[in-house]
Design a protein that fits this description.
- The complex is a heterodimer.
- Chain A is 33% helix and 23% strand.
- Chain A is α+β, with helices and mostly antiparallel strands.
- Chain A has one domain: Histidine-containing Protein, Chain: A.
- Chain B is an alpha/beta fold.
- The longest helix of chain B has 30 residues.
- Classes of the chains: A alpha+beta, B alpha/beta.
- At the A-B interface, helix 1 and helix 2 of A face helix 3, helix 4, helix 5 and helix 6 of B.
Chain lengths: 91, 580
């Protein structure tokens, strides 16, 4: 299992377009991936489900923990880290 | 006279009569199913059908309101692939033996409740999105057609409890004077679309607005959030004055987009629009497009059971040509096949549809169909600036064969005494690498070229842009693509032909300085992208663009080129401009 804690810095948080990008990226991997919003202590959600991810209410400056388990877990974590760190290409 | 106050969602003043829109929600009955496997299959078919419908709405909205606003439908498509939603529904069928309709309704309700209870206003608005998608699946399960607002017969102010994104996207915009909804917030899709379309809108008016009857006089003040029901004459006169003032102001703003696309050192290029029907032709002109660089004619052929008649096509082309007046209108002949099939033609099974029987290849094998279209286009060309463009050319012989048919059709029309523009320009789309590499040969047969980057990039990089595993290769600023495009333009110019571009690259802000530097003559894009593109072109000189191009052509990777392209846009347009 691989996991990482990330800070969401883009303006709208994991809503709308960034949420869609995140889910699309997660779906590229075979591993099971989940996301936990550490800033408001919501339950773990499936990173491959846009509806679940939206319900996690991840906003700007929230910390999230992303966990992946499966054959490509390391790649998945790296790819998602890159996406979040790049602020979803917003700047 | 009565006054209601709501949340101002889109400014402007509308004065007119009301149209109360009450969509019937499909009635959902619940029963126990015996064969859960067939029920799941039935559900899956409905999901696929919903995907097709939403893809169409997505494409239409992109044209009308631009990529950004239309993206909501991308999210809707993701909902239909959402494992949490799909599992919930399938489990309802499998374990509780629910019929698919009831299971969908239950799952949607669960998500709706979660969203409605969230603290963030934006998230609460997403409840409407889930319901929209859920209702679509249910309608498809029940075999019901969508009752959308495209049936409006005269300009009205729409009153509704709430409007779903797909209802808003599908309504006939020219008949909508304003929106008043009982529910909704300023981030609801109706509100966003209304702002994009510059239609006055008030949301969150409460149940009271629903007591208004169709046909009542209303004044909608979108800036203040006021609706006046049965206004006095004096009040209407006052608002009319206000409306006039706003119109004058809007004219000034739009006038800016109507300024020609001329670089700082006086080099003028053409900025035109890609359109797909009559409605978008008008919108294109409002956005400052100087004509049409690509009219997709597929809209006449899709969603029906037999091909359109010559007369029907003529009427549609003529309507668009009349809107364009003396501005150029490039009509692309039927581009079908690939991922777009017609129910009334058997395309057979193809292993590689994108490399298969499509566009000009298909038309040259269906000469009757092709002739009908060419006749309709020629007839619409009379006294207008119409040009013909053939798609998917790979070999010079295809142009010769297409032109031979065109000349036969011309001779027929002459014989019948039907008038048309005899000197009509004929061009081709450059979207196969073969055409891109043989511009000198093809130049002998055509008057112009238009680069279709969407397909050209797919074919050049050998990557299917719908396959997420390889989309990383789909890069408009890839060195290979830049070299190829540069080469096309240079060779065409050496052979005295003008070159346009009608793929997404032409409207991409980062690509515009580069294309200018290459010497592109015509930029064709979605109407909503026109104002931005013109602004960028006016901010730079041709000299600078050329220098910029020579400084990036040796860069070896895409990221570096993107970086440099961003820098020049920021330098010319200011830092706040880079919001993408």
């Amino acid at each position: 299992m691989h996991e990482i804690t990330l800070s969401v810095r883009n303006e709208v948080g994991l809503h709308a377009r960034p949420a869609a990008l995140f889910v699309k990226k997660a779906n590229k991997f075979k591993s099971n991936i989940d996301v936990e919003n550490l800033s408001c202590g919501s339950p773990k959600v499936d990173a491959k489900s846009i509806l679940s991810l939206l319900t996690a209410g991840i906003e700007c400056n929230h910390k999230i923990r992303v966990r992946a388990e499966g054959e490509d877990e390391e790649k998945a974590i790296n790819a998602l880290k890159e996406l979040v760190d790049s602020n979803f290409g917003e700047d | 006279m009565r006054n209601l106050k709501g949340i101002p969602a889109s400014k402007g003043i509308a004065i007119g009569t009301s149209f109360v829109y009450q969509p019937e929600k499909p009635k959902i009955e619940e029963w126990k199913v015996k064969n859960t496997r067939t029920e799941i299959k039935r559900f899956q078919i409905a999901v696929e059908k919903s995907k097709e419908q939403i893809s169409k709405i997505y494409a239409k909205s992109k044209e009308e309101v631009g990529e950004d606003t239309a993206r909501i439908f991308e999210a809707h498509l993701l909902f239909l692939d959402d494992p949490a939603l799909l599992e919930k529904i399938k489990n309802g069928i499998k374990e509780k033996k629910l019929n698919a309709e009831a299971s969908v309704a239950k799952a949607v309700e669960e998500f709706t409740v979660i969203f409605e209870n969230m603290s963030d206003e934006y998230m609460r608005a997403r409840a409407a999105d889930v319901q929209d998608v859920g209702q679509r699946i249910v309608r498809n399960l029940l075999g019901l057609t969508e009752k959308s607002l495209d049936k409006l017969t005269f300009p009205s102010i729409i009153i509704a409890k709430d409007l779903t994104p797909s209802e808003t996207a599908q309504m006939k915009k020219s008949f909508v004077l304003g929106f008043c909804t009982a529910a909704g917030g300023i981030t609801s899709h109706t509100a966003i679309m209304a702002r994009m379309l510059e239609i006055p809108a008030i949301v969150g008016l409460g149940e009271e607005i629903l007591y208004v009857k169709s046909g009542q006089r209303l004044v909608v003040d979108g800036k203040e959030g006021n609706v006046i029901i049965d206004p006095s004459k004096e009040l209407v006169a006052e608002y009319q004055k206000c409306q006039q003032k706003l119109k004058a102001l809007r004219k000034e703003t739009l006038a800016l987009t109507q300024i020609p696309a001329m670089t700082r050192d006086g080099h003028q290029v053409e900025v035109v629009a890609n359109i797909g029907d009559v409605n978008s032709a008008k919108i294109a002109l409002e956005y400052g497009a100087e004509g049409v660089g690509l009219l997709r004619t597929e809209f006449l052929y899709l969603d029906r059971n037999s091909p359109p008649s010559e007369e029907e096509q003529y009427t549609a082309y003529k309507a668009i040509a009349d809107i364009m007046g003396q501005r150029p209108l490039i009509i692309r002949t039927l581009d079908i096949g690939g991922d777009k099939k017609l129910p009334y033609f058997d395309f057979g099974e193809e292993l590689n549809p994108f490399l298969g029987w499509r566009a000009i290849r298909f038309c040259l094998d269906h000469v009757d169909l092709f002739r009908k279209q060419l006749r309709a286009i020629l007839r619409a060309s009379k006294d207008r600036n119409v040009k013909i463009m053939f798609p998917m050319i790979a070999d010079v012989d295809e142009i010769r064969r297409a032109k031979k048919i065109l000349n036969e059709v011309k001779a027929e029309l002459k014989k019948l005494g039907i008038l048309f523009a005899d000197d009509i320009e004929v061009g081709i789309m450059v979207e196969t690498p073969a055409a891109a590499m043989a511009i000198d040969i093809l130049s002998e047969e055509v008057d112009f070229f238009s680069i279709g980057t969407n397909d050209l990039i797919q074919y050049t990089m050998a990557c299917d842009r719908t396959n997420e595993k390889v989309t990383y290769l789909y890069q408009i600023l890839h060195p290979a693509i830049l070299r190829l495009v540069n080469n096309i333009i240079k060779t065409a110019h050496n052979n005295d032909k003008w070159v346009g571009m009608c793929g997404e690259m032409a409207g991409e802000p980062l690509a515009i300085p580069i294309l200018l530097g290459f010497g592109l003559d015509e930029f064709s894009m979605n109407p909503a992208a026109v104002p931005k593109a013109k602004e960028i072109i006016r901010s730079i000189s041709l000299e600078e663009a050329k220098k910029f191009v020579s400084s990036i052509m040796d860069l070896k990777n895409v990221e570096k080129i993107q970086q440099r392209a961003k820098e020049i846009i920021v330098e010319k347009m200011g830092k706040n401009y880079m919001q993408f």
